[in-house]
Amino acid sequence: MAEDTATRSGTAIARGSEFHISELFFSRTDTRGVIASGNAVFQRISGFTYDELLNAPHKIVRHPDMPKAVFWLLWHRLQKGEPIGAYVKNRTKSGGYYWVFAVVMPITGGYLSVRLKPTSKLFERVQGLYKELRTKELEAPADYSPENSAQEMNAAIKALGYPNYVAFMAAGLTAELMSRDKIGAKPVDDRLQAFDAMSKAVGDIFDEANALYADFRRIEQIPVNLRLQASRCEASGGPVSVISANYSNLAREALAFASRFTDFGQRVLDEISLGLFMMGSARLQREMNRAFEAEDHGASPIDHQREMALLAGHMQRCGDMARSTVGRILEQCERFIDDSRRMRRFVGGLDVTRVTCRIETGWLPDADGGFHDIIDKLDAFHEDVERRMKRIDSLNDNIIERTNALLNRSASRKPAAAPKATAAE
Question: Fewer CB atoms inside 10 Å of the end CB: C or N, the chain?
Fold first, then answer.
């Protein structure tokens, strides 16, 4: 179905409200969501006057097509003091609409939302997701409370390949910034690229760790089969039974430890997602600050100097949060090296037991090839584990290398002190 928005040369027109891809806008609210400030682009695109916007609830620009799920997620994170990014369809005073990707964060005394025009392929998919979810909310309101709707949205996000909403919002902001750069013929943002590559590497670790855990689950029955085979050899099979019991015990411990690898993958993926989001947010805030400084403030009732100071302070906090997250990622990865060494000791013990078992079974009659088949399965398992461990270690080294590069780059670019606000935030 064609929408009443046309796109020409990077400009979206929503019933007369022009919104170019190079434009950014912001609004600041108190803790209740009442608008305290905003820039001229926000005022122009919304179609409301400053008198109509200031001291009005932010829902004055809420569009009825928006799923309740998005606002439930937004307030759920903000009230915990956490940032959030979301695709949002807003309404204009004349009844038109415009889409944004909004980065919303808690600040002292309220919240700050910075918005850009979405143009990525992910945005196209999100529009369909929102439309489907909103239809369900309207058709069965009793079944779709805001929280229930949010759960359905999270399930849909997982179906798109994102483990949770934090990963989704990080991917969304990154996709929009990169798309914006491409349309504007700007250089590739190598910091966002580095984070994106780290995210993919952790995803690969997570996949390998899950496969490793599954491998250990699959061999649980092998030592049992080995003992049964040995029992057929009467007294001569006794040593093999003891060896297989030892192997079974070691494998059980290794299995329990393997679950820590999957836990690591989830923890680091969460940290990288947040770091990626904060890195993008800091960049967006820098651009917003420059744009606001260049605006004509002649007819605006907004205290320009005060807002500049607040925006600058917020930009610095975003950068600090991004750097802090990078530091936590490095700590997790270095801790993971110790876990990997411990896992290798488990595997080494299993390998010695496997070799001993092969030697002992070599002395036993094996008319039906039972011992031979069982030991071959153990050999294949150990080859698989070794291959996965090498890949996990290589991926972790890659993450550490990229993380150190980001930390070194941040250290060489100390942020300037933010100007002091003329009034308390």
Answer: N
Counting residues of the chain whose pLDDT is more than 70, the rounded percentage is: 88
The whole-angstrom separation of Cα 46 and Cα 93 is 6
Non-local (6+) Cβ contacts of 300 within 8 A are: 40, 43, 50
Whole-number pLDDT of residue 86: 97
Number of domains composing the chain: 2
Residues 318 and 381 reside in one and the same domain: yes
Please state whether beta strands 25-30 and 97-107 pair in parallel, antiparallel, or not at all (unpaired): unpaired
Binned at pLDDT 50, 70 and 90, residue 152 comes out as: very high
Domain final residue pick, 108, 139, 174: 174
The DSSP-derived string for 212-233 is HHHHHHHGGGHHHHHHHHHHTT
**C-alpha radius of gyration, the chain, whole number:** 28
List, as one string, the DSSP characters of 72-103. HHHHHHHTTT--EEEEEEEE-TTS-EEEEEEE
Judge whether residue 8 has pLDDT over 50. no
Q: Give the Cα separation of 250 and 64 in Å (integer).
A: 59
Q: Which residues have a Cβ under 8 Å from the Cβ of 336 and sit 6 or more positions away?
A: 264, 268, 396
Provide the residue range defining the domain that includes 130: 1-174
* Residue where a domain stops, chosen among 120, 145, 174: 174
Average pLDDT of the chain? 84
Helix (H) or strand (E) holding 201: helix 190-218
Q: What are phi and psi of 285, to 5 degrees?
A: -65, -40
What is the rounded distance in angstroms from the CA atom of residue 321 to the CA atom of residue 51?
A: 35
Per-residue buried b or exposed e for 275-296, using 16+ beta carbons within 10 Å of the residue's own CB? bbbbbbbbbbbbbbbebbeeee
